[in-house]
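The freezer alarm interrupted the setup, so I double-checked each line after restarting. Inputs confirmed:
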Amino acid sequence: MAAHARAHAHGAPDLTKNQALVLGALEKAEAPLSAYALLDQLRAEGLRAPLQIYRALEKLTALGLAHRLESLNAFVACAHRGGHGGHACPHDGAHRLMAFAICESCGGVEEFCEAAVEQGLKTWASSHGFRPAKTVLELRGLCARCPARPEAETTGA
Amino acid sequence: MAAHARAHAHGAPDLTKNQALVLGALEKAEAPLSAYALLDQLRAEGLRAPLQIYRALEKLTALGLAHRLESLNAFVACAHRGGHGGHACPHDGAHRLMAFAICESCGGVEEFCEAAVEQGLKTWASSHGFRPAKTVLELRGLCARCPARPEAETTGA
DNA sequence: CGGCTTCATATGTAATAACATATCAAACTC
DNA sequence: GAGTTTGATATGTTATTACATATGAAGCCG
Ligand SMILES: [Zn+2]
Ligand SMILES: [Zn+2]
Ligand SMILES: [Zn+2]
Ligand SMILES: [Zn+2]
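Predicted 3D structure, all chains:
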């Protein structure tokens, strides 16, 4: 077999087999996957222990190919994979603030950048002497495609 | 014993004994506490099972008296306890966006609101049809009081 | 060059720690 | 007695530690 699994020609530096498997699973998923969900999916491929998953995830998140959703304890593939090209949000090289909008109905995740948000946080931080190393910004709610609520409530005031 | 422990005259609706104990521990703490750290602290007071802590925390967070930090799996007392009065951030009644700046050196947490951030998120959400139910916004980094880094690095280029 | 050591990185496996919830029964309040 | 709070046990889920092994590149020595 070839030196390493390059696996999906993402332009990514060659990933190892486990990393490629985990990233592949994340890319195919419609919703974020927990480490143990990944493990279940990848048992067929020979992965057996949580650590194999966590190690791959650590590398993938460090490379910006996957992201951890803190409010879910789960992971998604980066939405900008294959080339952040025409995209206003090159969070590879520069590290801009990534935000996630997570639909609690369908599980879908949108990854976005919003300059005003980033600027506002920068303002607060510098005026308070806080030096952020990482920012977690996750919106939980309902996406555009999902109807209001599965809840029964009296319509009146 | 009296009806319920009102415990600290916070103007809060009367808390149960366990809720008061948990809130008291959070208020005394210098840094966020995990549920199990709370449990350890409160064993002396008779609490014995995780569920007792989690039940209290659920109520306290619902009341806005405590907050969960998702990126830490830990909890803090609300910084605005005792009366959000002169404070520009009445996140009791109205639910404004709360943000947290968490120092990774000393563990200190600052709770803040920043209108530009909130507005920026609102803008993104409405233009994308996303209806947020809850927003998680946590800055991880170094606070004003903590020196740069405990790291040794060669100074040269 | 071929074989050896060395080093760095990636893997595999087991055990355990840390975080969170389910279930059910007793007690207390109204 | 209904509703709530509580307590105790058990279980489920997420993450890490510790240790052993594999793999491949680089440098050395015959
Ligand atoms: Zn991304
Ligand atoms: Zn949706
Ligand atoms: Zn607060
Ligand atoms: Zn600090």
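Quick read of the result. Helices of chain B lie at 17-28, 35-42, 50-63, 115-128.
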